[in-house]
User: Fold this.
Amino acid sequence: FRPLARPKQNQKTSGFLPEERAWIDKFIAHGFTDTFRVFNKEGGNYTWWDVKSRARERNVGWRIDYFFISNDLKKNLKSGFIMPETMGSDHCPVGVEIIF
Assistant:
């Protein structure tokens, strides 16, 4: 999946540096689950957009807000979601539902 709309143009940009991507991969490899990706495999889902360029209107964004859970909790995961329609910030809320 692509966590941002334009990966080639941002390879040397903070937030998408190789060492940052490697850290996330390592985090997942150590037993954590990206709750949104469990239910949403497709790209084009972002949590941040540049306000100056009105990127949100074109959905040219980055997915930089996550909700991770331990793999032990994965069996209790009901949903993981992004709320792009919620305005008020250059970020949108992310959420998770866990059943106990």
Residues 8-98 form one domain. The radius of gyration is 14 Å. Residues 18-29 form the longest helix (12 residues).
